[in-house]
Write a structure and sequence with these properties.
This protein is an alpha/beta fold. The chain contains ten helices and five strands. Strands 2-3-1-4-5 form a five-stranded parallel β-sheet, with helices on both faces.
């Protein structure tokens, strides 16, 4: 078998954690990693599958700029010029609200209107982003939609695995990373209003991630065992 590199670059809030835990990690006879950096090792004569949603530039964070993710793509292309790229996108309205909820858990709460005003709108320009991907990797780009994963997960996974070049594994169709409810949004905003310091938000964010079994917490706990 020839060496093949496939990189799943996100986006955030498009079922990435589900794909990593329930699909990618269950594919047999490949080199799979859920991080991409300078130390990422490619195994010769195998399919190498790397998945890292942070390659989209941290799109939901208010302190990042959309131009940063273009620079990330160029750096990634320098490392893996012959890679195959997977990008999952989502309806912009539902993505925006889901991104907002992740932001107020991870950092500090604000109103949804304020979040929309402060977010770099370039992160919603999917077309320009996809054009940049096509320019760098030509025909080796696979774009899929989160809504298709929701409607028909079996077909979604089958089509993606065909692009990767593997048989689709058996997987459990479950919600791995459930978004917070509107009621929890109100609670977080009230909490941060009563205790406005970021120091007080950190234990709240940790507690929410722990209760929801966030992958960052569970992975950290495994390393401590």
């Amino acid at each position: 078998m020839r060496t093949k590199i496939v990189i799943h670059i996100g986006m955030h809030k498009t079922g990435t954690t589900f794909l990593q835990q329930e699909v990618f990690s269950k594919i047999s006879n490949i080199n799979y990693k859920n991080k991409v950096n300078l130390s990422t090792k490619v195994e010769e004569g195998k399919i190498n599958l790397f998945s890292d949603e942070n390659l989209d530039g941290g799109s939901y964070r208010l302190f990042t700029k959309s131009e940063d993710r273009i620079n990330i793509l160029k750096n990634l292309h320098n490392l893996f010029p012959n890679a195959y790229i997977i990008l999952c996108i989502r309806n912009k309205k539902t993505w925006l609200y889901s991104a907002y909820k992740q932001y107020i858990v991870a950092y500090k709460s604000c109103s949804f209107e304020k979040y929309k005003q402060r977010l770099d709108k370039g992160f919603l320009d999917f077309d320009t982003y996809i054009k940049e991907l096509d320019k760098l990797w030509f025909n080796n780009v696979y774009v899929c939609a989160f809504e298709d994963l929701q409607m028909n997960p079996k077909q979604f996974v089958k089509d993606m695995c065909r692009f990767i070049g593997v048989e689709a594994p058996e997987f459990e169709n479950k919600t791995v990373y459930k978004g917070i409810t509107d009621g929890q949004v109100k609670f977080i905003r009230l909490y941060d209003k009563l205790l406005p310091s970021k120091v007080f938000h950190l234990p709240l964010a940790f507690a929410i991630k722990f209760i929801r079994k966030d992958s960052t917490i569970t992975n950290w706990m495994r390393r401590k065992e």
